[in-house]
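Reply to dn_fold:

You asked what the input looked like. This is it:
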Amino acid sequence: MTTVALANAAPEEPSRLGLAVRSKRGAVGRNRVKRRVRAAFRQLAPAGGYDVVVRADDTILSKRYAALVEDLRVALGRVTGGRR
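and this is what came back:
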């Protein structure tokens, strides 16, 4: 999973998530990956004012959800400078 974030023009607005997902399992796998990453993003509720893009593939489906949340938490901490 690769994560990139850019500060947007409205720091008071909630952060936005963009997804770029590739899956060998077709549309069903791609949609499952998207649902899991979106749920983890909502759970973490990152600091506002960022446009976050996550690039992922279907290997996320073999991870435990708690591990996915932790990986995303670490990635968001890096790209947002630790802001929560």
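The chain has one domain: 2-79.
Hope that clears it up.
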